[in-house]
Amino acid sequence: MSTAHLVVPGTGPVPVTYTDSGSGRPVLLLHGGAGPFSVAGFAALLSAADYRVIVPVHPGFDGTPRPAGLTTMAGLAAVYASLLRELGLTGVCVIGNSIGGWIAAELALTASGMPGSPVSSVVLVDAAGLRVDGAPVPDFFSLTLDKVAELSYFNPDAFRIDPAAMPPERAATMTANRAALLDYAGTGMADPGLRDRLPAISVPVLVVWGAADRMIPVEHGKAYADGIPGAQLRMISDAGHLPQLETPAELLAAVGEFTAVTWQPRQGGPRS
């Protein structure tokens, strides 16, 4: 783990904990509300597939500090744009799951209006952030862990968590992560104005969705793909809200096909 001490416009000093693994095409991998462990295995797959993978911990998750003024996805997007610049990276593909996808959408919007942005493409994996009529997002904060599994996975039994068997430190981390998630996303997990802003995105975007996702329904994936000019939608039949856990090989293949077309050689700066 490394820590970057950033000074972010509009927020001020922000320490960001992150891992940096592999070499090759640069990827920023953003976790969802489940925390950084939910993307760790996929980060290892990407690293083995000739990507350089930066995985930050959203400030406030896993015991990391969060400045009082950092409470929005747009704010997190600004933090990660600063992190990429601090690392000297360009031509970065941002991959985000759930709220990480929401942050990735904000980064895509920023990159589209900023010449020289470090972000060149985005993959939205079962991304939160939209409000879609007729396809409401459940109130995550009112759900039991068992219900979260039912809504999140194609095969819930493989991922159920028994609270009684959970180590106390893990339970405390989950509680703190839920509090940070609530501060960032609210109970609605959406920005009512985001959908209207999507047409301004001009960087290449791939939308990947687990067909069994009942946490963020498939209609949200279709809304992202329909709202972003040129966006592709790829469905994964045997996955729910977290394809990187249920079908990592299929998600890796989708990312590989996308970046093979969109990645520009000689980009991706040196390690700092």
UniProtKB/TrEMBL annotation:
Gene3D superfamilies: alpha/beta hydrolase
Entry keyword set: Hydrolase
SUPFAM superfamilies in the record: alpha/beta-Hydrolases
GO cellular component: membrane
PROSITE patterns in alphabetical order: RHODANESE_3
Ranges for domain Rhodanese: 77-111
GO MF annotations, alphabetized: hydrolase activity
Keyword ATP-binding in annotation: no
Descriptive protein name: Alpha/beta hydrolase
Domain of life according to the entry: Bacteria
